[in-house]
From TrEMBL:
GO terms for biological process: nickel cation transport; siderophore transport; zinc ion transport. The keyword Transport applies. It comes from the Bacteria. InterPro entries: Beta-barrel_TonB, Beta-barrel_TonB_sf, Plug_dom, Plug_dom_sf, Secretin/TonB_short_N, TonB-dep_rcpt-like, TonB_sidphr_rcpt. This is Metal-pseudopaline receptor CntO. Transports the metallophore pseudopaline, which is involved in the acquisition of nickel and zinc, and thus enables bacterial growth inside the host, where metal access is limited. Is probably involved in the import of pseudopaline-metal complexes. Belongs to the TonB-dependent receptor family. It comes from Pseudomonas aylmerensis. Keywords: Cell outer membrane, Ion transport, Iron, Iron transport, Membrane, Nickel, Nickel transport, Receptor, Signal, TonB box, Transmembrane, Transmembrane beta strand, Transport, Zinc, Zinc transport. It is a multi-pass membrane protein. GO terms for cellular component: cell outer membrane. Residues 73-124 form the Secretin/TonB short N-terminal domain. The keyword Zinc applies. Residues 1-41 form the signal peptide.
Amino acid sequence: MTVRFPRNSSNSSYPLLRKAVRAAMLSTAMGISVVSTSSMAAEAGAVQVSQHYEIPAGPLSDALNQFARQAGITLSATPAQTQGRQSTGLQGEYSAEQGLNHLLNGSGLQAISEDGVSFVLQATPQSTALTLPTTDIKGFALGNALGSMEGYNATHSQIATKTSTALLETSQTVSVVTREQMDDQGSQTVAQAMRYTPGVLTNPYGATHRYDYVAMRGFNDGSVDNIYLDGLKSMGDSGTYSTMQVDPYFLERVDILKGPSSVLYGRSSPGGLVALTSKKPLFEPYHQVQATVGSNGQRGMGFDFSGPVDDDKRIAYRLTGLTDKSDTQFDHAKEKRFALAPTLSIDFTDDTSLTLQAYLQHDPDGGYHGGMPADGALHQRNGQRISSHFFEGEPGVDGYKRDQQSFGYQFEHRFNDVFTARQNFRYLDSKVKLDQVYAYGWTTPTSNELNRYYSGGDEKLHAFIIDNMLQAEFFTGATKHTVLMGADYQRRKTVVDWTSGSLQPINAFNPVYGNSAISYYSPTSYLRRLEQTGVYLQDLIEMDKWRFSLGMRQDWVETSDENRIAEAGRPLGTEISDKRTKLTGRAGALYLFDSGLAPYVSYSESFNPNSYSDSSGNPLAPTDGTQWEVGLKYQPPGTDNLFTASWFRIDQENLATKLPQENFYRAVGAVRSQGLELEAHMQLTDNLKVLGSYTFTDIEYSKSMVSTLSTADNVIENKGNSPTQAPRHMASVWADYKFDSGALDGVRLGGGVRYVGYSWADAENTMKVPSYTLFDASLGYDLGKVGLKGVDVRLNANNLTNETYVASCASLNFCYLGEERNVSATLSYQF
């Protein structure tokens, strides 16, 4: 891959609003054309003139990027060439050639040019340094924001701006989990990969692996609607059982953006979003196979093959596959997965690239998903506590089967040094079959038997999403603009057939299975549709040491729900639809000090259509979120270590609530979440990596959650209380050390501790879920040290002390048991 470091180149009102946005986009594009034309006309004679530079020490890629912009040159390089290299900076008067020679001194690299304007980075003839394969996509505008990197310290991300932006220069909190971190910590799900990220509760529903639930900054709506893959929304239906899940083995990195983010992505949760980046083809041969065995009968195998297809290395492939199965910690519940991801990248020219992707996954067994009453889970009932292995369902009934296939592409074309166009597309097809027997409360105040109910689902989902972007980089005087104009469209259709019923109770402390007769209730069947169109405009401004970000977006969202079976008061074919338009914005300012400090302030907004209906069957208004964030980032000069402190306040309106005896929701209430997050990513030595985080979250209902009925007994007053599944304190530390000499040469030791403070078990705040502390460990060894080149073994243990705990409670009847100790060993061979 080649990355070019750029050179200088100078309501009734909704239809009107839509026209205004389009006019603004058009006028911005026209202005960019005028500026770029005049700038390019003057650039040819500028590059040979000496000028003064004040480029601070830091990563070599950043120094070269700044130099190329200021010098007015184009510098072509691969991310692997600059990866991990540092620069001492550049101060003084230099020509373009002199400045490059100074920056590259001692790096083993040189810049070659035939015209004095376009330079190519090459290894010096005497250099013997190895160039590792890179998984960076062919992204001229995205650069190293999506690719692989060594260690735990990413330097750039595209999640907050859809452009390659340095984390230090992003005026919002962004965390990155690298491939190496996922491997070292033995992450088995995407949620587990984020266990050491501040502000994120990764196990709100306990030990289940079926979905990647992620609660961020105190917000958990019970869905996985905040997961994105390769820049596009995952497109599962959060109101059903059809949600997409990607195995972490297929990922290169996980980026986490905190706070509202609708300005670029449309409908989203106010807590933030999680962006997954899949493995991309390598242009150097790479082959790896691995086998894993572990506790609870876990066993699996995976392979990852990649390399160029042609001699010119214009076409490269990657084929990744996995098979995995486990008995899980719950009796009679199993997990099984088969997945395959073929990918092909084509470089038509140096300016045009296309990546074709597919992801095929078959989950015959989806494991366990259920909760227990607080009385019996949080504390003893009749002198006994519910076992963390207890299964309240029926072995002959329960099952979860999911088949998902997605196909897509990422296309990018650079017109010139100013304009780059990108288009991302994905189509998703999913089938889900669910049969679940679940518990809901005790049969009597003193019995040991749980009431049991049945839920059945047969669902088919079809969805596609496309995102078109035009990016322009230009200067107005000494000010650089990176303008992004985009339009995206998504469409989803889900056919759901649901059944429900009741079964005989079961003894929670001495279960006897076989009472599988179900008394069925009336079935329901719906055709659910969603359609969203959005246009957005963003300007990232670099003015000396200032960084400003401005963005706005207009969305048009339409949802509908048509019943396919006649219901009481709702004839066959009745359709309930809802159309909403929403304008959202974002603004941020950040200042870069020479010392590496970067204070910032930002404001952002979000909205999300509500999947609930009122007593008349009409959809509720979308929830709205706004956030103010003030923070300080610090990157010591000459390193890629990053320290972040952020204070935030999020207000969310139009929440939904209902009384237990009601079958409809009311749009009432609001939530305010505010708190502090601290994060540190440190490469202390060549051998020692350390991660640290702390989270304080103060979240409460800021408006009364009131259901106004005729009797005072039915009034719910929650103002000032905290929602469930929102710990007040969380903290974590992880360290990994690699020995490279002596008797322990080749050994890697890792260890971590995770603390989750207390949360509330009910919205009325009458009962607490106790805090818990978990320990994790990792031990690895490079068998190449004893002659087995390319062979590596790794042992991972999570919850090392086998702590028994309740992860959280969504209500007093649904508390979720935490994951017990699990140990796995992985043997891998790279060739």
